[in-house]
Amino acid sequence: MRILRAAVGAVLFAAASVAAQAQVNFDTIQVGTQQLANGVYMLVGAGGNIGLAVGDEAVFVVDDQYAPLTPKILAAIAAITPKPVRFVVNTHWHFDHTGGNESLGKMGALVVAHQNVRRRMTTGGFIEALNRKELPSAPGALPVVTFASGVTFHINGDSVVVTHVPPAHTDGDAVVHFTKANVVHMGDLFVSAGFPFVDRSSGGSIHGVIGAAERVLAMSNATTKIIAGHGPLADRARLQAYHDMLVALRDRMRQEVAAGKTVDQVLAMDITAPYRTEWPTGHERFVRILHQELSQR
Predict the structure, then answer these.
(1) Which domains does the chain have, with CATH numbers?
(2) Torsion of CA 111, 114, 118, 124, to 10 degrees
(3) Residue range 88-117: average pLDDT?
């Protein structure tokens, strides 16, 4: 199995900006595979990290990156099992997590997501922080099965529990818990090598991101493997550090907003500087979005 170095996750996360996406050459992207437990894997290419479970009953995929990478993703899966993909769960609606939906759906996979994922993919929308307009998705890319609070898959000798969380990265986020394997996929609720992107245009909130981290901390233990939306594989300790950082910065920003500080004044204070080494990406965007949200509450 090919294990991508941790630094690659941080680099690919930076590609979330529109300018960086324009420079992605999908022909050069390699899809790496990392085994996490018996029958459970993480795939890393470009876009959101993929969760994969294989067994006698089904091939189960969490997120599917960009459409041009689907052949490479399928090749990586074929190196593990000859069985076709039966289920795809989208952790949220963003383009770098749902791009393979249409192709996988045409091949027989059942796409499942929160009802707000289908709603946003159906209508499209504008992602303000990325200055990106999303057109409505093709009908074949839309989730076929949607849920309100959650759904459980009983497959491959495991219970895979998919749980919707209150508005966080978006208003359609889901956490996927492979209970027996002790693996959790958090989608973009967690960025293991940088600061989160709170997509307020899609209903996101920093309070929800913190709450989602608390939910996963409560269900995990020291040996839980946690797949972040972007960045290397993580564990409970890394998620705890992420949570504590976000709480500290939220509380600091509340103080600065209450004192009447503008976003430019807060940026000049460099309040994220203590975290620059451990969490190197997304600082300015995070500060701007956090100031915007807390100024309106």
Answers:
(1) 6-245 (3.60.15.10)
(2) -120
(3) 98
